[in-house]
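Backbone shape codes:
===
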Amino acid sequence: MEAISLLKKIGQIILLVLLQVLLLNKINLFGYVTPMLYIWITIKAANNISQSGLLLLSFFTGLAVDMFTGTPGMNSAAITLLAFLQPFIFKLFVTYDRREQVIPSIDTMRRGPFVGYVTLCVIIHHLFYYVLKSIPVADWSMLIAKVLFSTILTVLLIVVVEGSYVKNAKKGRR
């Protein structure tokens, strides 16, 4: 990875962690809906990054969120699980001949497959996160509501951010 690309990725991680900790964690719609945009780093990971590199990147991103929010490893565990499963999930939404050259985005995957890919990633992350957070699970309906509505809000936020990110990238190419 080039030095500029690495610095850009580190800057994105720092920005997403700060945004998550300082702003998004304060959003608590209806008492249980919280968007988790910081997982976008793992969802957007390029295919040329090694599995161990992705696991480490995701773990330390989750650990940073855990340190600032006082959650004992729940974010790092959930995002590390997502990082482990991300290559397999990605293969479900991209044809075999394009897997090596595609970085997950609306631009490269098209809107439908990208939204499906993001939705599955977010469901896996949120399900694991909220199960860890609510052990022992006393109220299954509340757990399902948290996962469902937080997933919807997170997916909408990721699609909006991704759409503006792709739009700005296209402007920069002109």
Notes: The longest helix spans residues 140-173. The chain has one domain: 3-173. Helices lie at 3-22, 40-43, 51-69, 74-93, 106-109, 111-133, 140-173.
